[in-house]
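tool=predict chain=A
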Amino acid sequence: MCVGIEEIDTDHKQILAIIATIIDAIDNNANTEAIEKHFAALTVCATSHFKREEALMETMAFDDFIEHQKGHQEFLQQLPELKHQLLYSNNIDAAEHVSQFLYDWVIEHIFISDMDYVHAFHNETKHKISLKAIFQRTSEWLSHRINISTRVLITSVLPIIGMLLLSFIAIKDNYQQYKNMQLLENLTQIVQQVNSLTHNLQIERGLQSSYISSNYKRFSEALTAQQHKSNNEIYTFTTLLNSRKALLTEPMLIEFINSTKIDIAELIIFRSGLNNTDMTSEQMLAGYNEIIAKLLARVNRLSHIKMDAEFANNITAINAIVGLKEILSQQREIGTLLIDDDLSKYELRHSERYKQLYMQLGMQLNAIFIFNYSSTPEQQQACGQLCNIAEHKAFIDNTIEDFMIQPEVNQNSQFWFIQLTNRTDDIKIVTDKIINDLDVKTQLKLKTLEQRFYLVIIIISSIVIFNTFVFTILYHSVITPIRRITYALKQVTLGRYNQQMNECTSSDEIGAMYGAYETLRRKLLQADMSKDIIKRQQQSLLDRRKERDKYRELASRDTLTGALNRRKFNLILKQEIGFAKQDKQKLSLLLLDIDHFKNINDAYGHGGGDQVLRDFYDACFSSVKSSDIVARIGGEEFAILMPETNSTQAHIIAERVRHNISKLQVPYGADNIRLTVSIGLAQWHEHDSFNTEEFISHTDKALYQAKGEGRNCVVAASSSFK
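tool=predict ok
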């Protein structure tokens, strides 16, 4: 019977021990001294326990404190009444009533009354903020609101959800990389096409420049063939742009396509006006340069699209080498015009076009630097000497020296054009190789990402299937045994003990539950088997107790009349005097003597005398209160003890008894025996300090006085009758 508070539980154990002692004393007919000792111990222990409980309730500000305190006081007030009932009642039901009352009070006090404030105490303790308390409250909250099946499900599903979340992130990352690779693939194709288109435009620009500078005499056939190639490149590029626009979603790339298509339209318009002979070489070069510059500038901005850093560097490197080729091509056209101007060495060195040659050389060197910075070692190796800054500078310097600075005989624009065209073609080959390598890498990366995607899907599906299978097995391995135990326990509550649980051999908590159930079932079987034996034993004990109480009652009764005998009467008188002294109660005593009883015995024999005594007792018993005690203390002498009765009330009762006796006719044979009684009356007073013998002696004097005054009368003791 623990409530979870150590001091309170200790008090409960002590109270239970004392109550058990009292019940044992009742069963063993312990003497008055032992009963009083046990009740005194119970009073002291209960008082201390109640004080401790009330102090705890006050610290908690318990709402029902006053009601609990009132219940404590009522119990303490009932203890003297229970003790009095136990000591001075000859009824066996009184002892059983006291035992049952104490038993019921213990159950009600611990399991009902105390549990109210104990529950509030534990709740208050739980609401203290601590990590352990928060963990415990959370666990209890879950256990109250989510059943065990759902908790097992959540425990198994949460890792799967976490894995799926991580898998989703991996798939999303893989998808994003795949989209980037697709974007890079489109960029590679576009850059490759722009490189091819600008290369053909660069050749066309050079031929157009040579054609104009030769006064439209040379390069006509080569220019026509190149224009046809450029037309094909423009058509191919336009077709590519139109096909990619519907597939792409990247805003920057869509803007590039729209802007480039405008540039292509301007290019077509510009090339259709080249037949105008009024156009100068500078105007023609400026037109080509502007369009080619727009295309290359738009391609350069594509490197700003969000993509993998490695591929972004590749785009930057390609743009740099394409830019190098364009600058070299412009340098070729300017050099061709400069040579055809047929200037002296001095005029050539100080001409504006000569300065442009070296400005463009600086731009070429910067493009080479950007390429070397952004490209991979493999790309640098593919470019070789073409992308070596010192070698390229030496090539340009030597070419200028050979075809411009040397004696006029070597100044040939055609040789200059061929030399730089070869250089441009070499750079074009390198550019195509780099772009092709990038395209191969992109395709390989796309294939790898696709394979990874399918592999991840397969792995995730396998894990989900495997986890679902394992979860199903684990779920049933936990829930099924619990359901079996629950069903078996329900059967036990119905008295069916045949549900065995021997199939579980595990050593975990489930196995422990199975073992505990099987032990419980066997214990209940044993209890059920011995139930009849216990009942028979209990019935036998009850019969023996009743028989013992019957003999005890017979031992305290007069066998002839059924009145209490003198020994029992003296014991009760002593107890009543003690109560009267303690509680300031009134107590009166009547002593009765049948007048001339010897004459009745002589006239009718002992049979007649015995009948007179029996009828006399019945008449006395029916004439007094139910709380009054009638005893036979001698041959024809009787006593009536009247608790809580003063002498005036006792005198009235005594006169009623005397009157009823005088009217009594005892049938015996053919005669009716008549008789009278003399009665002595006395009231016990505290100031008299009478003990049992003195009180009886004092009353006996009044009885002798009644006999001396002629019998058949009531005489009260002079010192007590007030």
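The two ends are 57 Å apart (CA to CA). The CA atoms of residues 497 and 645 lie 62 Å apart.
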